[in-house]
Every structure is written in C-alpha cells, then in structure tokens.
Design goal:
The protein is an all-alpha fold and about 200 residues long. The protein has one domain: Arp2/3 complex 21 kDa subunit ARPC3, CATH 1.10.1760.20. About 65% of the residues lie in helices and about 5% in strands. The chain has seven helices and two strands, in the order ααββααααα. Strands 1-2 form a two-stranded antiparallel ribbon. A hairpin with a 2-residue loop joins β1 and β2. α3 packs across α5. The longest helix is centred in the C-terminal third of the chain and has 30 residues. The chain is globular.
Length: about 200
C-alpha cells in the first residue's frame, strides 16, 4: 500500500505531510520510556512484513500489520509505522520520501480506527478481535488510498481497468488473509501473554 514518488499531486502530498506531522505529534505526546521496547519490536515486524510486496501500478500489495499495531500499540502505532516507512524509503526505495506523509496516514489512520473500535469488541473472541483489526485496517487503507489517488488525478479512475479498480480488487483478498492471520496471532498472544495488548 506504499505510494511511490511522483504519484500524488503536490497539493495532496503537502496536505498529507502536514496531517502526518499532526498525527505523529499526538502519538508522541506523553510517551514513556517503558513503551519504547514494545514500539521498537513491532516497528521491526512492520518493517520486515511490508518489504514482502507485489507492485501494482503506483502502489503495491503486501502484508501491512497496521491493524495489529493498532491493537498492540494503540495511539503509539503511528510512531512505529512512520519509522518503518522512513527506513523502507531510504534503504530500499519502497514508497517514497515525497509521499512519506501520505503513506504514514494511509496506515496510521486505520490503526487508530482499530484501536478505538477495540474497546467495543471486548465481548467477542480473541480471534474475532484480531480478524476485525486486520480486515478493518486493510479496508480503511484501501478507502484512503483510492481517495488520495482520485484527488491527485481523476485519470486514475478512467475505465473498467483503471488503477483505482485494480488496486481495490487486488487488496480485497489480502484484507481477508490479513484478517485471518491477525486473528490467529492475536488469539495466540492473548493466550501466552494477555498483558501484551494493554495500553498505557
């Protein structure tokens, strides 16, 4: 779900960068030293998983883990997402520096949505909490990605085989797969270490 350099219009790139700065400031506010190891661990997992990708037009399909980060890190999730994206862009040219703000928002906003929805799902099974996190994060990311592409250039939506249609279709199976994998991961971690998902 990384957007490459040159895909977004300048106005959209600037606006998303400003938005990413705001969300990072909120995420960093009041951070405690004992939260850093957990953020670092999950940043590493996010960094590695997002490097497994299949390019599709101006973006790519790959595991994201933003839903898992939303459950595990809560409001700190954008910190790990931003660091992972920055390293991917500078070390492997995966994504781009001009679109770093947009990519940060694409994954951080769905992670926040998962975090806020998790309080409403306390009576469902651990697997379903995880499935909802993974599935919701991908669907939210697709919606944001399509919106940014459309705002940048309406030609991305021209024709049956437009970039937007291809991206939407490509990510739907991934949403189901990520939901299932996140569901099993969350169920396992709740079993062996229930405190892993406690928020500060």
């Amino acid at each position: 779900m990384h957007i490459a350099d040159g895909v977004l219009s300048v106005s959209v790139a600037v606006a998303t960068t400003v938005g990413a700065v705001g969300i990072l400031a909120y995420s960093l506010n009041g951070i405690k030293e004992d939260e850093i190891p957990k953020i670092s661990l999950l940043t590493g997992a996010f960094f590695v998983s997002s490097l497994i990708n299949i390019p599709i037009g101006p973006t790519s399909v790959h595991p994201i883990l933003s839903g898992f980060l939303g459950l595990a890190l809560g409001r700190r999730a954008p910190i790990g997402i931003f660091i992972g994206l920055l390293l991917q862009a500078t070390l492997f040219q995966h994504g781009g520096l001009s679109t770093l703000g947009a990519n940060t928002l694409l994954m951080s906003l769905p992670a926040y949505l998962v975090y806020y929805l998790s309080s409403l799902l306390k009576n469902v099974s651990f697997f379903m909490r995880g499935f909802n996190a993974g599935f919701t994060a991908i669907i939210g990311g697709i919606f944001l990605l399509i919106s940014l592409l459309f705002l940048s250039d309406a030609r991305y939506n021209d024709g049956l085989f437009s970039v937007i249609n291809i991206v939407a279709v490509a990510y739907l199976p991934l949403a189901l797969l990520e939901g299932i994998l996140t569901g099993f991961s969350v169920k396992y971690l709740y079993t062996v270490r229930p405190t892993f998902f406690e928020q500060k």
